[in-house]
């Protein structure tokens, strides 16, 4: 696709009433606009017709419209843009709301999925991912993520029993690219010194997921649009076959003076006053749990998605060490711990794993009591005296699997020109993006285009805050300790 230069503005040519675009079908409008554009270009003009003030609506012809700016949507947008596609991403909240900013950020290499002693399909599909991410993080592959904040280049893996461990063998046996290396007693971090079992290092990177969103958003800011889902309407030929997407302005709080200004003929600065109609060749839903509602809006079944809930634990203290690791016993991950520094300079631990799966059935106090016991059992050296505790609930949103089991890889459904996608894991996002590009039919990359012709002053989404910055209730360790524990017992 060629670069069409700055958007073309036409003066009103008909007597139509302000904003009365709904009386004419999108196909008719497109035909008329294309005719005008052809005449204009025949007369020596160049450019794409993007604004048609007579009907007070901005029309944009696009290759792909993506809904949802978590890791999956933003990565895809970046890839499409690099390939010269006219693509935009519509976000209903802050970017990464839902799973991505709540995630632990581990770029899994599959070991977790070999713990039962089998090379599962999950392990096979994920084993190439750490190498791809490492190249992006080192700026050797696109998207260049060298500005991304990494939490660590490795995780620890440990067992609580003193039995001889099979950890070291698993990676080699299954050809994983991130096989664990046993760590001698002297080389262990302080927090793992009291553990009787095997300790290994695993070259799985841990990233700040907020930073991932920030870096990808900064690379594509012009193509990110904030939308109010209540003001987005699809025109479909049949279920899943989207002809056009109408975005009837924004919530007044978002649009501010631009909307109050009414009909505006100049572009920029106040074109966001003009509602948008997008004509996409393909539509991709990467809205996580939001995919269900989006599918309903285009007449598709909502039975395509499953949610697997988690009740995650957070600890914060200036005295907690930065630490990333999994404690595995048998085929189970008892806890997965990742760390970050919060805006006040305290270390925050996110604790997931089996305890967060079991915790779904428990209230906050019960979960914290059990989590405290679990952490003391798997990390005998831990000092919790200065720690504050909190929890958050979040659902993993995935393509449906019989029995509600975890999908083994990325999930994509293709219906009409709509693709609904769930990466299943953050680590699998590059694979999801490549597969979506293939299904959209992008064979060869063209040169990137400068502008897709959406109003430049349309409000842009911000980046969501992580759960430790939004949690309002934190309990001191003494409030989670013995008194509560004896109650629970
Ligand atoms: C607690 C937890 C820990 C995890 N840890 C890891 C890990 O360590 N490693 C790993 O590989 N995976 C991990 N995962 C899985 C991983 O986080 C997800 O697979 C991944 O983040 C999903 O990204 P996504 O972009 O598909 O969805 P999301 O991150 O949920 O993003 C969806 C976006 O769509 C937007 N949206 C919703 N509805 C609409 C709408 N109607 N219109 C427009 N936009 C909309 C939302 O606001 C949001 O920005 C974890 C998941 C959880 C819940």
Give the helices and strands, then pairings:
Layout: E1 8-9, H1 26-42, E2 49-52, E3 57-67, H2 71-82, E4 87-91, H3 121-126, H4 129-137, E5 150-152, E6 155-158, H5 167-173, E7 181-182, E8 199-202, E9 206-207, H6 209-219, E10 224-226, E11 232-238, E12 241-247, H7 252-255, H8 257-260, E13 276-285, H9 291-297, E14 305-317, E15 325-329, E16 332-341, E17 347-352, H10 354-358, H11 364-378, E18 388-399, E19 411-415, E20 418-422, H12 429-440, H13 467-470, E21 475-476, H14 477-480, H15 482-488
Parallel strand pairs: 1-2, 3-4, 3-13, 4-10, 6-15, 13-20
Antiparallel strand pairs: 2-3, 5-9, 6-8, 7-8, 11-12, 12-13, 14-17, 14-18, 15-16, 16-17, 18-21, 19-20
Helix pairs in contact: 2-6, 2-12
The structure holds flavin-adenine dinucleotide (FAD).
């Amino acid at each position: 696709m060629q670069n069409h230069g700055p958007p073309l503005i036409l003066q009103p040519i008909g007597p139509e009433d302000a904003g009365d675009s709904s009386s004419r079908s999108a196909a008719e409008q497109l035909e008329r606009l294309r005719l005008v554009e052809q005449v204009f270009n025949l007369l020596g003009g160049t450019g794409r017709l993007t604004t048609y003030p007579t009907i007070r609506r901005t029309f944009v012809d696009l290759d792909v419209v993506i809904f949802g700016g978590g890791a999956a949507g933003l990565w895809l947008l970046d890839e499409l843009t690099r390939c010269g596609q006219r693509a935009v991403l519509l976000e209903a909240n802050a970017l990464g709301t839902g799973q991505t900013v709540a995630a632990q950020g581990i770029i899994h290499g599959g070991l977790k999925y070999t713990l039962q002693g089998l090379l599962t399909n999950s392990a096979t599909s994920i084993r190439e991912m750490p190498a791809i991410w490492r190249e992006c993080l080192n700026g050797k592959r696109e998207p260049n993520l060298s500005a991304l904040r990494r939490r660590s280049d490795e995780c620890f893996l440990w067992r609580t029993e003193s039995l001889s461990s099979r950890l070291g063998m698993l990676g080699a046996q299954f050809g994983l690219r991130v096989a664990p290396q046993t760590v001698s007693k002297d080389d262990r971090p302080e927090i793992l010194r009291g553990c009787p079992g095997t300790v290994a290092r695993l070259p799985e990177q841990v990233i700040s997921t907020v930073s991932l969103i920030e870096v990808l958003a900064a690379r594509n800011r012009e193509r990110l649009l904030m939308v109010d889902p209540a003001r987005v309407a699809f025109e479909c030929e049949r279920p899943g076959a989207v002809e056009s997407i109408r975005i009837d302005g924004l919530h007044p709080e978002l649009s501010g003076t631009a909307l109050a200004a009414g009909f505006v003929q100049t572009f920029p600065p106040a074109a966001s006053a003009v509602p948008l109609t997008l004509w996409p060749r393909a539509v991709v839903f990467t809205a996580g749990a939001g995919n269900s509602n989006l599918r309903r809006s285009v007449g598709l079944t909502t039975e395509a998605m499953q949610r697997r809930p988690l009740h995650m634990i957070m600890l914060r203290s200036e005295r907690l060490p930065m630490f990333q690791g999994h404690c595995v016993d048998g085929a189970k991950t008892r806890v997965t711990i990742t760390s970050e520094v919060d805006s006040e300079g305290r270390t925050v631990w996110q604790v997931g794993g089996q305890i967060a799966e079991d915790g779904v059935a428990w209230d906050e106090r019960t979960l914290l009591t059990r989590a405290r016991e679990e952490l003391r059992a798997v990390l005998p050296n831990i000092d919790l005296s200065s720690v504050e505790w909190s929890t958050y609930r979040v659902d993993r949103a995935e393509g449906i699997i019989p029995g509600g089991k975890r999908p083994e890889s990325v999930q994509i459904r293709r219906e009409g020109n709509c693709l609904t996608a769930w990466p299943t894991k953050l680590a699998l996002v590059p694979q999801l993006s490549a597969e979506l590009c293939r299904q959209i039919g992008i064979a060869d990359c063209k040169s990137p285009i400068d502008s897709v012709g959406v109003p430049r002053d349309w409000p842009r989404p911000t980046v969501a805050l992580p759960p430790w910055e939004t949690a309002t209730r934190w309990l001191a360790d003494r409030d989670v300790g013995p008194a509560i524990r004896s109650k629970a017992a």
